[in-house]
Write a structure and sequence with these properties.
Length: about 250
Amino acid sequence: MELGIKGKNVLVVGASKGIGRAIALAFAEEGCNVVALARSMQLLEELKKEALQKGAASFEYESVDIMECDAVAFAQMLIDKYGEFEIVIQNVGGSLVSRNHLADSSDWSHALRFNALASIDMNSVFLPIMIKKGWGRVIHISSISAQTLRGNPLYASSKAFLNAYVTTVSRQLASSGVLLTSVMPGAVAFKGSYWDNFTVTDPKRCEDYLGHHQAIGRFGTCEEIADVVLFMASERSSFMPAVNIGADGGSM
Ligand SMILES: NC(=O)c1ccc[n+]([C@@H]2O[C@H](COP(=O)([O-])OP(=O)(O)OC[C@H]3O[C@@H](n4cnc5c(N)ncnc54)[C@H](OP(=O)(O)O)[C@@H]3O)[C@@H](O)[C@H]2O)c1
């Protein structure tokens, strides 16, 4: 299938490891111009070498902590430096924030900023440009927890908010040619990941989780998520605004 994204300008926020890394490499293989963001300069430098080998038209990166910077100003700086983005992947997030459901709003605010608000700040710069051009794709990496509402309440609630943002805002944009969507992974394991650690330290927990919650009976791979993201970033997804798509091994 021809995706039609060769040569497009792509930003991957949270690209140094795991799912974001696989996504950056998938766009590299499609011959895109990739700009990658994360905190770890060393991992980004390693990623750059691999991305260029795989065929990226160009690959640039910025080391940044999106929780510590003015995300609106940073997004504007990226455009001034690298040009306008046609495809933006918002991958930063995670459950490793407070798990205290009785915490006050400072913990909840942190979880919300990490999983949604920092990327919404950036989108406030990127989306108007895409709308003006009449084409664009912004894809958030959400989580199937947004639908199951299981696990860490702060995480699940933040991702549920993210899904609602995606659906409601994308409907407003639908006729403009700009698609705002999300992909909701189930449990994905990769070297050094949350689930990968449990396969060694607590295999019983993994077996139990997979047996009860992931019908396919195994963890997903980063590449399986990246493939869905590539499709959503392409022209081929043109009739799919406002969706939150599960890639979750049959969540149950
Ligand atoms: N893995 C799963 O099972 C799973 C399941 C469902 C949903 N998800 C979602 O998928 C996304 C990626 O998950 P993952 O497991 O691949 O996570 P990860 O291994 O923690 O990777 C997150 C990426 O974001 C970057 N990042 C984290 N905090 C940042 C910050 N403050 N500023 C800039 N960059 C930052 C990290 O790089 P640096 O550390 O170098 O900054 C890394 O490149 C998350 O939104 C997560 O909620 C994952």
